[in-house]
User: What shape does this take?
Amino acid sequence: MTVGKTGSATRLIIASAAGLGFFAGIIFWPAGRLAWIEGWLYFGIVTTSLLVSFVYLRCVNPEVIEHRLRLGKGTKSWDKLWSVLFTPVFLAIYVVAGFDAVRFEWSTMSPWLWPLGLGLWLPGYVLFAWAMGVNPFFEKTVRIQTERGHRVIDTGPYGFIRHPGYLGFFGWGLSTPLFLGSWWAFIPALLSVAAIVIRTALEDQTLREELTGYRDYANRVRYRLIPGIW
Assistant: This one.
């Protein structure tokens, strides 16, 4: 293993450990206790999904893992602002869910809705991972990756909609209130969905203006996010 690869592996391990630690904290701190079965089931589902997608990406598109660990040069200013605004809204899903479902019990949700959460999560995450698998330019910020030979990707799910990763991410946001049993958590969840729709529109416009071949691709694949609608 080269020095560069060793450094990348170390960064990945540190980032993964820190991310999982933070994730556990943002789930259980608002709840005020660790004895929360729904919280642990949710943590297990998300962690397992992340592990499976990591193995999948290591096999089919390992470079996307490395590039998603850093902020690429040339990231659009509007996207930096979007990220600053979006992050607390998305994290609020967990904070509200913990306060609501466990600490204060503001609302009551039937456990029979839990399978509905799983029904949203699984296809959403599969679509998200599939999009990453076929798109080597699937970075975490919006920019034209000139130094990497950025080109239009029209295979896999990109043959049906132009931004399948965002559609897949809807499953994450909307399934979380159902997994954790909180009606109030749907407020930040729906705000997160609205924010992703805005980012989709802004990113699509950026690609139309700056990425060679994207206008022709958009003419072939008509819908940005939801087939038959938009």
Q: What stands out?
A: The first helix runs from residue 3 to 31. The helical segments are 3-31, 37-60, 62-67, 77-103, 114-134, 164-180, 186-210, 214-220.
